[in-house]
Amino acid sequence: MHELAICQGLIREVECVARAHHARAAAKICVSVGALCGIDPQQLARTFSIARAGTLADGAELEIESVGVRIRCPVCDLESEVAPNALVCARCGGWRVQLVRGEELLLRSVELELEVNEQAPRAPAAC
């Protein structure tokens, strides 16, 4: 179950962002999951609810955006959305296409809960 390792890495990044902003917790975490990245979004959500226990993300909501597959054909220059199991150009049928989108796993945003006495945002520290 590689989703557990992915969730642990995700939580490490979220904790780093939270520390850099002197936050007490993460309230919402948004990720993008590409159709070809090898991660099951439903399993990721279930695993996240276990992996977050005892961390700054303990009460955080995980929002998962599923990202479709987009290719570009170098022969006819068409860029289009395709099914994950049909990586061929819709116009010319070419199979030597370039993947534009669909393999990513991105941490898109983190909504933080700041300390009560926190004032203006500080410059983030390097993680």
Provide the CATH architecture: 2-Layer Sandwich
Helix fraction? 10-25%
Elements, N to C (H/E): HEHEEEEE
Q: CATH fold name, please?
A: hypothetical protein PF0899 fold
Please identify the oligomeric state.
single chain
Q: What is the class in the CATH system? A: Alpha Beta
- Low-pLDDT residue intervals, each spanning 5 or more residues: none
**Rg for CA atoms:** 19 Å
Shape: elongated
Number of structural domains:
1
How many strands appear in the DSSP assignment? Answer: 6
What labels describe this entry?
127 residues, alpha+beta, hypothetical protein PF0899 fold, 3-stranded mixed β-sheet, elongated
Task: Kindly describe this structure.
The protein has helices spanning 2-20, 41-51, and strands spanning 23-34, 61-67, 69-72, 79-82, 98-101, 105-114. By secondary structure, it is of the alpha+beta class. A hairpin with a 6-residue loop joins strand 3 (69-72) and strand 4 (79-82). 24% of the residues lie in helices and 32% in strands. Helix 1 (2-20) crosses helix 2 (41-51). The mean pLDDT is 91. Strands 2-1-6 form a 3-stranded mixed sheet. The chain has a 3-stranded antiparallel sheet with strand order 4-3-5, with no helix packed on it.
List the helices and strands and how they pair.
Layout: H1 2-20, E1 23-34, H2 41-51, E2 61-67, E3 69-72, E4 79-82, E5 98-101, E6 105-114
Helix pairs in contact: 1-2
Question: Brief overview, please?
Answer:
The chain is of the alpha+beta class. It has helices spanning 2-20, 41-51, and strands spanning 23-34, 61-67, 69-72, 79-82, 98-101, 105-114. The protein is elongated, with a radius of gyration of 19 Å.
